[in-house]
Structures are given as structure tokens and as C-alpha cells.
Amino acid sequence: MEKEKVNDEKPDPENSLDFSEHFNQLELLETHGHLIPTGTQSLWIGNSDDDEEQDEKTEEWYQLQEKKMEKDPSKLLLWAAEKNRLTTVQRLLSERATHVNTRDEDKYTPLHRAAYNGHLDVVRELIAHGADVHAVTVDGWTPLHSACKWNNARVASFLLQHDADINAQTKGLLTPLHLAAGNRDSKDTLELLLMNRYIKPGLKNSLEETAFDIARRTGIYHYLFEIVEGCTNCSPQS
């Protein structure tokens, strides 16, 4: 009888991933989400019914929600910033401006919520009342990360004008540029970031990837990284 063969082959380093001790599964989705199958063979069910019905909410519905949260102004401010309820945000801040940097359970501030939804007027109001542009979530996201992830270029530009750190890194070492590079609809935001003289496109995330690596794999705008080639302060390799 033949002896059972023992598989003593060493793993191929090129086909294996060596995750760092700071590896974050959620942040892996931000840079490798394109690998998740979609369509009829996918187990991902897409948006919920609540998401689909969001645009159908009436003013009466919003007012009812506000009444339910009136006794918790911090919660109401977070909600109002996310839902673009500018008048409510203004009223709450006029009553108690110290709530401007209140946080939810994941350490998102009203500024984070307004930024990732692209509500520029709310962002302006929050910053005018002292919102912290450097506030970080439990995963290390700043409001600029939130804006760049969802291609909210106007909000990102405003945050940069108010001293947001363009090279801030999350716990997974993702910069705003990494997040923009992973969004296939992020041309405006990529142009904004890459034309900034202080951008450092060579920074790597916890998987040792630069933003250019992600853009080349996931999108059609990787050519935009040529913008920085002639810059005296930076280059795609630095």
C-alpha cells in the first residue's frame, strides 16, 4: 500500500495575507468591498425598506421624531445633523452650544454625521459653534474621513479650510485619500485631495497598501494620481 502523502508545502507568501495586530475587519471592507459578490448570487440583500422609504418622509413625520427626542438634546442634535434639519440644529446650539461635540456610542459627533451625509450648511453651522474637526470615532475616523468616503467633496473642502488633517490615519491606517480611492464615484474628492500641497499619497494602510494601489484595483480614476507627480512636496511614491 502506498503511504499517505504528507502535505509539507510551505504557504505561498504572495497568496497569503499577513494581518497586523491592528487589523480591522470593518476597515478591510472599505478597501476591498468591491470583492463582495453582488447580484442574484449574492447573500447581501441591499438597502432595507426603511432606507428606501426615507425620501418619502413628511415634514410631520420629522416633527414627530423631534418631539420624541426633545428630552435628550444630545441625541436630537446627532439625529438632526444626520437628517439635515438645519433649523433644529441652530435652535439646539443656541440653547446649549456645549452639545456641539456630543457623541454617540461609536464616538461619532454631529459633525461626522453631517459630513458623511454631505450636509454642507449643517457642517458650517456646527463649525461656527466650535465643532472639533479633529474628533475621532472608536475606529479613528475624523469628519474628513466621513466626507471623503462618500465623495462629499464640498464638505471635504470646507473641512480642509478649517484645519482638518488631510493625512489623518484611522486605527487601520486609512487616510481620507485611501477611502476616496476605494469609492468608484469619487472623482471630485480625489481631485480635491490630490491637488492639495500637503497630501502624502505614499502613506500605507495596515495592509501595506497606498491609496494608489486601491484606486488602481477598484476604480477608473487611478490616473488622477498623476496630478502629484510634478508636485515639489509629494509624489505617488513618497
Automatic annotation (TrEMBL):
This is Ankyrin repeat domain-containing protein 49. It comes from Ovis aries (Sheep). One of its GO terms (molecular function) is ubiquitin-protein transferase activity. GO terms for cellular component: BRCA1-A complex; BRCA1-BARD1 complex. GO terms for biological process: cell differentiation; positive regulation of DNA-templated transcription; protein K6-linked ubiquitination; spermatogenesis. Keywords: ANK repeat, Differentiation, Nucleus, Phosphoprotein, Repeat, Spermatogenesis. It comes from the Eukaryota. Signal peptide: none annotated. The keyword Phosphoprotein applies. It is found in: Nucleus. Its main location: nucleus. ANK repeats lie at residues 106-138, 139-171. The lineage of its organism: Eukaryota, Metazoa, Chordata, Craniata, Vertebrata.
